[in-house]
Design a protein that fits this description.
Trna Endonuclease, Chain: A, domain 1, globular, 5 strands, 2 helices, alpha+beta, 117 residues, five-stranded mixed sheet
Length: 117
C-alpha cells in the first residue's frame, strides 16, 4: 500500500465485502459532512447500519477497536444524522445502528451496536 488513504480504502472494501457476505446491502460509502464521516452505510432488512472501519497493523499500541474514541463516535453519529436528514429519513421512526469493523493484523472483528446515539 502506498499511503494511509489507499490503505484505508483497501480495508473499507474488505469490510464491505465481509458485510455483503453476511447478507447486507451497500447503500453508501465515505459519506462526508462538515460534522464527520461515515465509512460505510449498509442495509440489513429495514435497518440502516452506519459502519466505522478501523485498521491497525498490530496491537502494540492497542487494537483497532480501542482506537475509536468517544469524540470519534460523536462524529460518526453526527455524520449519520446528517446523511439521514439529507435522504429524508426520519430519525425518530427509522431503525438504525452503529457497527464497527475492527481489523488488527489479519483478524477482523465485527462489533454490532458498538455505540449508540
Amino acid at each position: 500500500m502506498e499511503n494511509k488513504q489507499q490503505l484505508g480504502k483497501y480495508y473499507e472494501e474488505q469490510a464491505c465485502q465481509f458485510l455483503c457476505q453476511q447478507g447486507m446491502r451497500l447503500v453508501g460509502k465515505n459519506s462526508i459532512s462538515r460534522l464527520g464521516e461515515v465509512d460505510l452505510i449498509m442495509q440489513d432488512g429495514m435497518c440502516l447500519i452506519f459502519v466505522e472501519v478501523r485498521y491497525r497493523k498490530n496491537d502494540v499500541y492497542g487494537d483497532a477497536q480501542s482506537s475509536i474514541t468517544v469524540v470519534k463516535q460523536h462524529k460518526v453519529i453526527n455524520a449519520a444524522y446528517s446523511w439521514m436528514q439529507k435522504h429524508d429519513i426520519d430519525i425518530e421512526t427509522s431503525e438504525f445502528r452503529f457497527d464497527v469493523i475492527a481489523i488488527t493484523g489479519r483478524k477482523l472483528h465485527w462489533i454490532k451496536n458498538a455505540f449508540s446515539a
